[in-house]
Amino acid sequence: MTQVMNKKDSIYAQLLRLLLISAFAAFVVFCGLNYAGEYLVEGYLEKTDYIKQKNQDYVEKLQKYIDKEQLSSRDVAKLNVWTKSQKVLSIRIYKDEIQVFNSEYPEQEVWEEEIAAGNYAWEQYYNIRFSDGTAEIEMTGIYYYQFYNYALITEIIISFFLFLLLVLLGIRKKIEYIRKLNDEIQILEGGGLDYEITVKGKDELAELGASLDTMRISFCNLIEQEKKMVQENQRIVTEMSHDLRTPVTSIMLYTEILKKGTYKNVEQEKEYIEKIDKKARRMKQLTDHLFEYSLITGETEVKLEDAESYEVLFYDLFSETCSYLEQKGFHSEFQVKWINQMICVSTEYMMRIMDNITSNIVKYADPSMPIIISSIEEEQMAGFIFENHIRMVGEKVESTEIGIQSIKTMMSKMGGKCRIEQENRLFRIILLFPIVSR
């Protein structure tokens, strides 16, 4: 029986957990790489004097621009144009230790405020020659941030690929299981029904694997049932052939005697004719049973009628059965209690079943012992019991068991059960029908 899957075990839940875990791992790695990247960039900048060298390059470029344009320290507009064209710089110019230009406030005439130079130890000042004399320039550039940008992009790419790798590794297990299921299905298609389907986990794929294995087992059982049915049919045909051969041989023997006229008198002639008639009727009975068995074991599904109460379904059948048995010299004891349950049956099948039961009683039961008919209720099923004693004296009647097999087949098609019990001379047939809820 397939177990109900917990939502936390579903593929969606597993995929969500995989994504969250992978994202967390990628974030942790990103943080570590970011810290390491900043440490390496700062170390590189300190060891190589990269910033100082870049500042010196820009100072030289500015000096060339001033010489070319013959700028004075008061040509704020042109200084601002050059600074903006560099995009990564901000500069402050001091003349006579008074700030005369600040690229961050290009429109403001800062020399009127007489802002003095700070001359802080961490600031680098460079001498610039203007047309009106020498001035000092303090330069701040963000050109070194490209290293941080490159490091950041590298860290993001590594973290993303780590996230992608973890997700793919997690999904790969499911893909491998799907491939395994596909391979095992191909094994089943090739006829290897004994191969057990692998069931891993508790998710939808595991349920699929379990369903496939259940289907495999059901199919094996079906094949086994068909095999048993074929064997049973072969057995019945073989036994029927043997049973038919005996009366045919007798009929041929008596017919030969009658043709040759080797009988003693008219009474013996009538005796032979009676025996031929009896054997012929026996043959007809056997062929009727065989026809009924082949009809019942066909592939046609039985159509059950609407649910009826136990009493309504069986009252008339029991009345007719008891009357018929009384006519045949049997005494029946009717001990049925009308169970208050609803049952679905096929009336046609029920008539055949009762005919087979009464036919078996007439042929095999001891008339001196009563035929007991009683009711039975087991779990979710209800039915009745026929009980009789087997005949001990008189002519032995051969049995092919086709009637009993037909009863079992018809009961099975109606969803019921047929049990046969025998203790010494006591023979009991039990029929059970599924109870239908009101």
From TrEMBL:
Residues that span the membrane, as ranges: 15-36, 147-171
GO molecular function, one term: ATP binding
Top-level EC class as recorded in UniProt: transferase
Domain named Histidine kinase: residues: 239-437
Keywords: ATP-binding, Cell membrane, Kinase, Membrane, Nucleotide-binding, Phosphoprotein, Transferase, Transmembrane, Transmembrane helix, Two-component regulatory system
Domain of life: Bacteria
Topology with respect to the bilayer: Multi-pass membrane protein
UniProt catalytic activity: ATP + protein L-histidine = ADP + protein N-phospho-L-histidine
Annotated EC: 2.7.13.3
SUPFAM superfamilies in the cross-refs: ATPase domain of HSP90 chaperone/DNA topoisomerase II/histidine kinase (SSF55874), Homodimeric domain of signal transducing histidine kinase (SSF47384)
Coiled-coil annotated residue ranges, if any: none
Domain HAMP: start-end pairs: 172-224
Subcellular location: Cell membrane
Name used for this protein in its record: histidine kinase
Species for this entry: Extibacter muris
